[in-house]
Amino acid sequence: MKLRIIAASALSVCLALGTVAVHAKTFKWSSASDISTWDIHSQNNALQNGIHAAVYESLVYYNSETFKIEPVLATAWTQVSPTQLRMTLRTGVKFHDGSNFTADDAVFSIQRAMAPTSNFTPYIQGIDRVVKVDDRTIDVFTKAYNPVLLNQMTELRMMSKAWAEKNNSTAPKDIKVQDENFAHRNANGTGPFMLKEWVPDQRIVLNRNTAWWGTAPTNVTEIVYTPVSAVATRMAALLSGEVDFVLDPSPQDLPRIRSAPGLKVIDGIENRTIFFGMDQHRDELVGSDVKGKNPLKDVRVRKALYQAIDAATITRVTMRGLGQTTGALVAPQVAGWTEAVHQRYPYDVAAAQKLMAEAGYPNGFEVDFACPNNRYINDEQICQAVTAMWARIGVKAKLRTQPLVTYFPMIQRHEASIYMLGWGVPTFDALYSLQSLVRTPGTGGDGNYNLGRYSNPKMDALIDQVKVELDPAKRTALMTEALKLQNDDVAHIPLHNQVIPWAMKRNIDVVHRADNRVDWRLVKVN
Length: 526
Description:
By secondary structure, the protein is of the alpha+beta class. The chain is built from 17 helices and 19 strands. It has two domains: 11-262 and 506-525, Periplasmic binding protein-like II (D-Maltodextrin-Binding Protein, domain 2, 3-Layer(aba) Sandwich); 270-499, Roll (Dipeptide-binding Protein, domain 3), CATH 3.10.105.10. It is 28% helix and 23% strand.
């Protein structure tokens, strides 16, 4: 979809020219859910990562207009050998508490992301160790050549080692438990904005960091984020002028917003695929009327659930066109995707009923079904529609929905038999999805979001080959083969790639990104 956008000037140009914005402004925005923590290595969640990026910076980041890797806290890097990346760090960078950013902080931050309680293992895939060379240089050693190492590092944000040690936050907060560390509610980054206030489920207030090392086009001096779960309330706030920007507007309200004189919408396909995962590990499903076995272990049952879903109708009616129906586990922007793996199994209720009978469930069965209600576009409505579709083949899905902050810890504790998940690919490389979603759970990021615990030795072998393959063409072919195997095994049930609209006042300038993330350096209030 062609972007309708008023683009800010490229950040790299503004940095070179030293542009300084004037006329300070407050930027007020909203979306459905709050973040769950300010600990930057605790939970890998796209909304949260995007908000954290205003306060905490990574060594490298994607340019919002080209999506090429650009320097941030690292100014240069050299591949010394296939397994050694040397990075030169920026001078003159200070944390918000006034302390200097050094190689010690960079080494500490990457090691912290590798900790057992970190949810950021997809971004440290393949990293063996990190070594300080001098105060302005680090070496990142990998177990084998990793062609997407820099892509992974766009999400590894930097924390002060001294601050973490002083405040007993050297290890990330464990998302699975209630215990908190100091970094959970407090922040000390190097970014263009500083955390002033966080009242969970009410507001986040960020203030401009006047000592920031960079310059950018933004004239925003204060960011106020208000999570509002009710979409009607979010849209009313935009229409009344209470907020300037809504990240996840109501699809049915988009025509009215597009035509309103003081408002506008910009949109584009997100690199995020929405799908269902299924428990393929337990010998008996919790809460099911099938005793002594797990129907979801049978590929015929999984395929029946897939073919009973009318994805085209969901995209047209429930999503109001804000989706690209797919049979692939990754979006078209991602390396490894092909038109062939994109093709869905046909919607066919009769075929689904036949598969259910062949599997020994001619009358269906009861099954737990969990979905978020404030994370993805019309997530709850999608699950309600699917519940009705599955009923046609006798599957009685007991739907329960939860807000983001409780939903993700719940599914990570393996407490859902069938669950919805949306998976973006910040590396734009299918290994990120394959390793996290279909690799047998293990160490180093393997299967960290394989919450249905699908396991296939052939899949594991393919993914492990991708990790070390040096030839780009062979590596891409291996990823495509693994994506096809996921389709054949129905390891997950893909639904669609989201089309993301952003709604805002006409005087707001932002750059739409495929990762559904606002670049805070480029926001302008005119």
